[in-house]
Records
---
Amino acid sequence: MPSVANSLCGLIPKGAQNVAVAKDFLKYLIQPKVDNEYLKTGLGRRVPAMPSIVKGDPWWLDPKDPHRVAYTTQTLLGPTVPTFWVFNPAYAQVQNEHVWQTAWAEIMKDGVAPQASAEKAFKRVEEIFAKYPITEG
């Protein structure tokens, strides 16, 4: 069964004080060896985006943990399909504008109340979806 191909991303907020340091950290984090060790500390809850990491480290396919082998094989080495928003232009725009991440940053950085930040994010999502009406046909 195909798995949804998913990924995570780093976020450097607009107006961050140490953009160069943040970029250096992200460059460090995406190195295959570093990424591999980082993901292994999560006990395989996420798999690397690079099949070469899995193929180069027997830990990912160690038969002593059949759950990790199955998860890694299904999500990285088996067939995948894109995340659902590639089929929905409205939600693709929501993702590209980082609506949810912006809300999280407002809470953490600016001290905005979670309820207020959520309401603002949902309002923006509604505005975006209004531009892409779903018609029956």
Note: The two ends are 30 Å apart (CA to CA).
---
Amino acid sequence: MATNTSKQIDVVAGLICRDGRVLACQRRDGSVFPLKWEFPGGKVERTESDSEALCRELKEELEIDVLESLQVYQNEHIYADGPMVHLRFFKILKYRGEPKNLVFQQIAWVALPQLVGLAFLEGDKPLIEELAKSGGAGFLS
């Protein structure tokens, strides 16, 4: 089957840290890429900046208000029979509220060494590898 590289999607994701752990979210069974793990976030709409999309997505998914964020990583991934996805990952420096699971199968605070053992989306794996190599330095510290 051919890969559809004509369609490109911009995606933002948040790295939310607490006590040396990062928040990971598991997609619902029955969704696209069922039960895969990801960092919270989603598609950037045409009229949004990355920051606006990140704020909107984390409010919709976790009911938190992002107050400050910093882009720490980006990459591109082409899913089989799917679009090219431009992923931008942001460390969430400040937020208001306590993360609540509004849309996922489950959410979990995961220590960096355990991230590599989770079945993450393919587009997130390069970041997971960098986090594992660096121990989070430059990304989460």
Note: The mean pLDDT is 93.
---
Amino acid sequence: MELQLINEQGKPTAKVAASDSAFAREFNESLVHQVITAYLANARQGTRAQKARGEVNKSNKKPWKQKGTGRARAGRASSPLWRGGGKIFPNLPDENFTQKLNRKMYRAGLCSILSQLAREERLAVVEKFTLDSPKTKLLAAKLKGMGYDDVLIITDHMDDNLRLSSRNLPNVEVMTVGEADPLALMQHARVLVTRGAVAKIEALLK
């Protein structure tokens, strides 16, 4: 498998040899869906909660007498059938949303996503991607010159100038190889990988 190597103006200059196992797999839609679903589920904190009928701050007095009013029987205002009452099956703060995903499945899903990005020519390689100073304007101008608007940059090591410059750009995300996740790969229109990061990806996903 060969990936496109581009220069700082976004022009193709050469080809970079890459592992077929990481960048030339068939796209497995069901596996990618399972990987992303599990990733999102495992990121949930589960801190939301609802109140049951015993936890709602309502009076325990019977709203009206049992018989003779013509209305339905009512025991207390905290009934789940009433507006402002408790929930029948409330969400609890200690609910566990995690989904088990085997390591081989996760790596195979990442390889499938990277391979599809390469086939769609949404993935490109650069020798290195650094900035002289931590200025958002410099990074925005550099990406505009390369023709990139919505991009994920994967580097072999985190450059502080690059990290600080990207924080105020909503469509730009900078990650190391170990931080790259399937959701980020799917969210951005383009993926820019440094040459050193390609070797690390191959070693990580072999």
Note: Strands lie at 2-6, 12-17, 123-126, 151-155, 172-176, 190-194.
